[in-house]
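User: For my dataset I need records formatted as: sequence, then structure tokens, nothing else. Please produce one.
Assistant:
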Amino acid sequence: MTENIEAIVLGHTKFGENSVVVHTLSEAYGRRGFLVHVGKKAGMTLLLPMNILEMDVVPNPKSALWSARNLVAKDPLNGIRGNLYKNTMSLFLSEVLLRTVKDGQTEDGLFPWCVRSVLTLDGLDTDFANFHVRFLLELAGALGFSPSFDDIAPFAEKHLHHLRPFLTSSFSESMLIPLKGEDRNALCEDLLRYLEYHTESSIQVRSLAVLREVFG
């Protein structure tokens, strides 16, 4: 019996000639991979990082790898796909989630927060260079450990003066915090170490280097 769910694409892995395992985050199953048959290259656009999909899940009693079919994008995310900077940022966000949230892990509120974050990034026209810094802080809260200044301080000793405004500002205010590219990158590295510690995960995010190139 199939079940229709919403899911966010975190990445995909080739599986045979005409299939991929799509790594997703959903409210129904947390982080989980589903086998998807793909044909035309155009269909792969559905699997871009952080796409929000509707799909039918097909259980397989003989395997832990279930299938998904009838994938449909819930939102075109034109604001992200038409912008090099936001598109690169979406790659970073998806990789962080893929490395941070363990396979099979569910966390109340994580999925709807991720959906809101994607749609917020999509809708921002300007002043979004700090978005991924704010995302990492909010992700900590969504995973169940609310970041405080004292909690993060051991991981960001050299950059505490840059971090403090993010912990005391609203979302819109934090988008306007002036930061050089190198300082923004350093904050991201500090926050990734903080997430590593609390999630007991090894978070090797290759797309951070791409963000450095794009944002400077």
